[in-house]
Amino acid sequence: MSDIRWLDDDEQRAWRAYLRLQGSLGAELNRRLQASSGLSLADYDVLVRLTDAPDGRLRPYELQRELHWEQSRLSHHLGRMQKRGLVRREECDEDRRGAYVLLTEAGREAITQAAPDHVETVRRLFIDALSPEQLRALEGLAVQVLARLEDPAGERA
Fold first, then answer.
1. Residue 54 host element (H or E)
2. Whole-structure pTM value
3. Average pLDDT over the chain, rounded to whole?
4. Using CA atoms, how far apart are residues 37 and 108, in angstroms rounded to an integer?
5. What is the phi/psi pair of residue 38, to 5°?
6. Rounded distance, CA 35 to CA 148, Å?
7. What domains are defined for the chain?
8. By the number of CB atoms within 10 A of the CB, which of 87, 94, 125, 148 ranks highest?
């Protein structure tokens, strides 16, 4: 137990502030998005990935990788979105066991309608609260931590 590197007071405050920020911002963005568009933040994330994809379609494993979701979460969420007509599944001609997730016209319309209010909310709650220098620093911090998360050796660093 003596090898444990406990957080000092400054580290503890920074870590807890980050956790509060992440939780509070996510909850508020979700609440406002649902109120204005009926979409959850998870719906929006899926729709963004599909609108960014060629032909509005991705393989489920690609969505899973981009969203960093567990397979069961993605499967259940896509099922709910499919029932609402936002996405549909299509067999993959190249791989009979595989499938694609496709953005439907209703899904495209939903994100087109939701995006302006959502972007304004992100700007008002997050972007406008920070200076350009703080945004650059935040990006640098995020890139640095993400690189460690994506590098299996990062756990040993």
1. none
2. 0.87
3. 93
4. 13
5. 80, 0
6. 36
7. 9-125 (1.10.10.10)
8. 87
